[in-house]
Design goal:
The complex is a heterodimer.
Chain A (H helix, E strand, L loop, with lengths): L7 E7 L7 E7 L3 H12 L7 E6 L11 H5 L23
Antiparallel strand pairs in A: 1-2, 1-3
Chain B lengths: L1 H16 L12 H29 L5 H26 L5 H10 L15 H19 L8 H29 L3 H20 L11 H6 L7 H19 L9 E3 L4 E3 L5 H11 L3 H14 L1 H19 L1
Antiparallel strand pairs in B: 1-2
Helix pairs in contact in B: 2-3, 3-6, 5-6, 5-7, 5-9
The chains are: A alpha+beta, B mainly alpha.
Chain lengths: ~100, ~325
């Protein structure tokens, strides 16, 4: 019997040149080479990608959803960061 | 402490009611987590075991084209199993634990795979009927309340529609062939029709978990609703093929704008669920054998990775 599972990897795929890599899911693999090969077989069977990143899941650090409200609060009341906050006279073009 | 818990539950339900998806690290009631782990892992097991009745036909497919298609379909099922196991793992269970539960018989998988695939026409029925039923079950799950499950289902559904079409095409080809081929198609339909209706699960009245699952928006339709939809979809398709569904009570009901149909043999259903179907032992036996005989590969891969890491470090 196996004493331990293969490590878990997060998979990111660039669907075409010019777009960024996007998280698509995860898989188990013994090492990075195998993770990339498995990611190809699992996540790109229909030409969904032109490039693959894999990151071992244990290396991902994440914000805490329980603190989300306080954590993202600083952006909450700053409407002036959006262009729609400003009134531009109708006669002004190209702004 | 108790009021805090109640508060969390209320907030959780409010998010569900507002159609806000739940993500892995979010607070969730234990029962929600358990229900999801059970449902998602069962679903993953079904994909995995579902490869077996079809794998049997890969070397017997009537042409290279059919063989390539079937191989590709079986490969998809493996992929679907992987997406789903990964989704379940975000809830805190492990792949090893889920597989151990499958192999010990503790976890269930779809009973449909405990029926034998006797002829090539069965490959047609598995795609057309079984995958057709699976799609009906799965499309609403793309909007299920748990984010990773919903995302996995989007991917599964995209791939699944080819499965159904290739099955229908097999049936179409057989039905347009010699009388003996059409007979083969009809026999397969006779064998698969009722077990497929069972795939939607027990009647609503006998499905005590449905209400809670609907409330949590894990499920979006009841078993009986989906079963009716399926019959309404499939009867005209069978007619198109020139086949007859093996239920003499099937009749269009003008008032309901739906087909009336007969009662499923629930005794058979529960019997197969309990492990006494025609292929339960075969399927599980094949699964356990593959897992055990593959153990050395998993171990060797780990050892190889370790060796390479050590070399790289030195």
């Amino acid at each position: 019997m196996t004493q331990s599972e293969w490590p878990l990897w997060e998979v990111f795929i660039r669907s075409k040149q010019g777009l960024d890599h996007k998280h698509v899911g995860s898989l188990h693999a013994a090492d990075a080479t195998m993770a990339i090969q498995n990611a190809r077989d699992v996540y790109t069977r229909r030409m969904e990608g032109v490039s693959i990143w894999v990151v071992e899941s244990k290396h991902v650090h994440a914000s805490n959803p329980d603190d989300a409200e306080a954590f993202f609060d600083p952006a909450n009341d700053k409407v002036y960061r959006h262009p729609t906050f400003y009134d531009v006279p109708d006669s002004i073009k190209h702004m | 402490m108790e009021t805090v818990e109640i508060n969390l539950e209320e907030q959780f339900q409010a998010r569900i009611d507002a159609d806000i998806r739940i993500e892995p690290k979010d607070w969730m009631p234990d029962a929600y987590r358990k229900t999801l782990i059970r449902q998602i892992s069962q679903h993953a097991h079904s994909e995995l075991v579902g490869m077996l009745p079809e794998g049997n036909w890969i070397t017997r497919a009537p042409s290279l084209k059919r063989k390539s298609i079937l191989l590709s379909k079986v490969q998809d099922e493996a992929g679907h199993g992987l997406y789903l196991y990964s989704a379940a793992e975000t809830l805190g269970t492990t792949r090893d634990q889920m597989l151990a539960d499958l192999h010990s018989g503790k976890a269930k998988y779809s009973s449909i795979f405990n029926y034998p695939t006797l002829s090539w026409a069965d490959m047609g029925c598995v795609g057309w009927l079984v995958d057709g039923a699976a799609i009906l079950n799965q499309v609403p799950l793309c909007r299920t309340s748990y984010g990773p499950y919903a995302r996995a289902m989007v991917r599964v559904c995209k791939e699944e529609s080819f499965h159904q079409r290739q099955g229908f095409e097999i049936m179409q080809t057989l039905c347009a062939g010699a009388p003996v081929q059409k007979e083969m198609a009809q026999e397969a339909l006779n064998r698969w029709w009722w077990p497929t209706l069972m795939m939607f699960g027990p009647k609503d009245a006998d499905s005590p978990n449905t209400a809670q699952s609907m409330n949590w928006r894990i499920k979006r339709f009841t078993n009986d609703e989906l079963r009716q939809k399926f019959v309404d979809m499939m009867v005209p398709q069978a007619e198109f093929l020139g086949l007859t569904v093996p239920d003499p009570t099937v009749k269009w009901n003008e008032e309901r704008q739906a087909y009336d149909f007969g009662e499923v043999n629930w005794e058979e259903f529960w019997n197969v669920v309990k492990g006494n179907g025609m292929c339960n032992q075969d399927r599980l036996g094949a699964r356990v054998k593959a897992h055990e005989e593959g153990a050395w590969v998993r171990e060797a891969a780990l050892a190889h990775a370790k060796k390479r890491a050590q070399k790289a470090a030195a």
